[in-house]
């Protein structure tokens, strides 16, 4: 990535890198909108949740917990736990973004999601570093935010008119597969992905998706171990 990349060019680069992932995100957002209404969440609250929480898997879990009548404290704790993976993303981009003003850090922290991270990180880590690299993350994050809001609104508007058994749930795993596979370019990352996948399957019955967090930690440990062996 050239160091002379303009802000507008960097922003558009982030948008273009994210656009293919919207093919998986859009139906996922529509399904969330429908499930939120079926769980008893008012339409306005369902839309606001997408703007405030802005985390698909956490929103799905929260809607399901609300529908099941789970206590508020338990719901907040479960959502916080499933979103802990974003701390890993933050640690990864921190060396590149550490010199930015606080307002930029707050904005990018809000927009930092699985897809936005995957779209931007190859450019953020490329050499030579660009002083406008953060605009790439801003572009990918904004593109995902806009697509997620529109798809959620579509699901809320369709509401009960859209059958709940369309089988569109495949969009979420396909989206994550599209994110992970291109990033597996060495043995350490391959081992990390395999270990995380196996642990996630073995611990799938743990409550409130805690198995996913355990799988992420196991994958990190395995990847770090094999990375040191190189």
Task: Describe the protein in words.
This protein folds into 2 domains: 7-168, no CATH class; 184-230. The protein contains 12 helices and no strands. The chain has helices spanning 7-18, 22-38, 43-52, 56-67, 72-82, 85-97, 102-111, 114-124, 133-158, 171-180, 187-202, 210-229. The mean pLDDT is 82.
> CA-to-CA gap between the ends?
27 Å
In helices, the fraction of residues equals: over 70%
Topology pattern, helix = H, strand = E: HHHHHHHHHHHH
Write down the overall geometry: globular
Count of DSSP H/I helices: 12
Number of strands: 0
Overall average pLDDT = 82
The structural class is mainly alpha
Task: Please give the domain count.
Answer: 2
Radius of gyration, in Å, reads 18 Å
Task: Give the low-pLDDT segments.
Answer: none
Largest sheet, strands/sense/barrel: none
Which oligomeric state applies? Answer: single chain
Strand content: under 5%
Secondary structure layout:
Layout: H1 7-18, H2 22-38, H3 43-52, H4 56-67, H5 72-82, H6 85-97, H7 102-111, H8 114-124, H9 133-158, H10 171-180, H11 187-202, H12 210-229
Helix pairs in contact: 1-9, 2-4, 2-9, 2-10, 3-9, 4-5, 6-8, 8-9, 8-10, 11-12
